[in-house]
């Protein structure tokens, strides 16, 4: 098993190496010698990934990383000043690499700003323009039942359509917490009233995503009832529901029953993505377990007060890595994963902090 202290040192280095001089945070530094050539190229900025990295950087006392990233979001992300929204991914110079709308990206950035300044909310006013534009952007895109345009889920595998009043569970949670965070940072004025009202509408919609057994992947006129591990985000980091809520507990039971295979947590049922390339083609021979999800589930069990279960999911990854934490761990020696993945290392730092190992 890899030593935790050593893993934290490696994680600090990986996060730092994914943070570029202009403030961009890439999902993986594909130009490093340690990056596997058979893996998909991840030298792009996903605002979501950058947000989780910023949270981890706070815990590592790398305070300059979040601030540089927030500045990049405001000044470089193409189209943000006009729309107040962040889209799927960007080149490091800020140009859009893909134009698909992912609502959780904007909510995540707002939450990451709050996280960075939670002990000095007045300090967040350094990014007042970013906060206001993002909160107004999300509010304008919301029509009371859903978003006014086609939205993509965080895994980039499924679309939600406005005519179906369809929303992704994780995305709503991120947007609710993002808008509420904006109100905590800028509590006065008409803006906060608007943002809070939209967040309340989203909460009402999110409550409908519980189908009696678990929170579904997406809900609307048509519902995707498959279980998705990202619904853990309802507890952490977005704290929409408490870990002891019976609805959350029954959802986690379904995650463990359907998505935990030989100790590793998978994204959702029948996932095929593996990030393994051949002559420019994605092989898609079946997904593996995602270490970041093991750490996410471990975080849930820490909050639930079950340290033994938390360590089980945590140690499962450490027993199967040599320091660099990949995107996926497979049950064979053929498939090759993106490694190291920024988000995996960020989640390792986060859960290590929860477990008191930092």
The count of strands amounts to 10
Largest sheet: 2 strands, antiparallel
Order of helices and strands: HHHHEEHHEEEHHEHEEEEHHH
Alpha-beta content class? mainly alpha
Helicity level: 40-55%
- Radius of gyration, taken over Cα atoms and rounded to an integer in Å: 19 Å
Number of helices: 12
Oligomer: single chain
Shape: globular
What strand order characterises the main sheet? 1-2
The low-confidence parts are none
Beta-strand fraction estimate: 5-15%
Roughly what is the average pLDDT, rounded to an integer? Answer: 95
**Distance between termini?**
17 Å
Short synopsis of the structure:
By secondary structure, the chain is mainly alpha-helical. 45% of the residues lie in helices and 7% in strands. Helix 6 crosses helix 8.
Secondary structure elements and their pairing?
Blueprint: H1 4-18, H2 47-59, H3 64-75, H4 80-83, E1 87-90, E2 96-101, H5 103-117, H6 128-141, E3 151-152, E4 159-160, E5 167-168, H7 169-185, H8 190-207, E6 218-219, H9 246-258, E7 260-261, E8 264-265, E9 277-278, E10 281-282, H10 291-304, H11 307-318, H12 342-354
Antiparallel strand pairs: 1-2, 3-4, 5-6, 7-8, 9-10
Describe the protein.
Helix content is 45%, strand content 7%. It is mainly α and 358 residues long. The strands form five sheets. A two-stranded antiparallel sheet has the order 1-2. A two-stranded antiparallel ribbon has the order 3-4. The chain has a two-stranded antiparallel ribbon with strand order 5-6. A hairpin with a 2-residue loop joins β9 (277-278) and β10 (281-282). α10 (291-304) runs antiparallel to α11 (307-318). The longest helix is centred in the middle third of the chain and has 18 residues, at 190-207. The radius of gyration is 19 Å and the shape is globular. It starts with a helix and ends with a helix. The mean pLDDT is 95.
């Amino acid at each position: 098993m890899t030593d935790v202290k050593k893993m934290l040192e490696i994680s600090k280095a990986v996060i730092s190496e994914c943070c570029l001089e202009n403030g961009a945070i890439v999902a993986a530094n594909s130009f490093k010698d340690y990056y596997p050539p058979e893996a998909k190229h991840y030298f792009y900025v996903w605002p979501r990934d950058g947000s989780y990295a910023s949270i981890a950087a706070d815990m590592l006392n790398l305070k300059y990383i979040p601030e540089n990233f927030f500045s990049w979001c405001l000044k470089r992300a193409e189209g943000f000043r006009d729309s107040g929204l962040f889209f799927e991914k960007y080149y490091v110079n800020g140009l859009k690499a893909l134009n698909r709308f992912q609502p959780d990206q904007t909510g995540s950035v707002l939450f990451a700003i709050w996280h960075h300044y939670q002990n000095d909310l007045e300090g967040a006013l350094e990014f007042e323009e970013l906060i206001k534009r993002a909160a107004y952007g999300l509010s304008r895109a919301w029509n009371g039942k859903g978003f006014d345009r086609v939205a993509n889920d965080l895994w980039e595998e499924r679309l939600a359509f406005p005519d179906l009043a369809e929303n992704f569970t994780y995305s709503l949670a991120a947007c609710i917490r993002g808008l509420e965070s904006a109100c905590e940072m800028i509590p006065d004025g008409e803006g906060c009233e608007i943002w809070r009202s939209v967040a309340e509408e989203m909460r009402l919609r999110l409550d409908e995503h519980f189908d009696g057994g678990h929170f579904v992947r997406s809900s609307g006129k048509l519902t995707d009832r498959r279980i998705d591990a990202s619904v853990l985000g309802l507890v952490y980091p977005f704290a929409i529901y408490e870990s002891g809520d019976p609805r959350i507990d029954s959802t986690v039971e379904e995650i463990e029953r359907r998505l935990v295979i030989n100790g590793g947590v998978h994204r959702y049922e029948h996932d095929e993505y593996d990030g393994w390339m051949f002559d420019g083609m994605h092989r898609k021979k079946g997904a593996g377990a995602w270490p970041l999800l093991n750490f996410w589930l471990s975080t849930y069990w820490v909050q639930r007060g079950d340290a033994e279960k938390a360590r089980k999911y945590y140690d499962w990854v450490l027993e199967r890595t040599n320091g660099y934490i990949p995107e996926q761990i497979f049950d064979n020696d053929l498939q090759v994963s993106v490694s190291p993945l920024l988000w995996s290392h960020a989640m390792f730092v986060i859960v290590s902090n929860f477990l008191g190992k930092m």
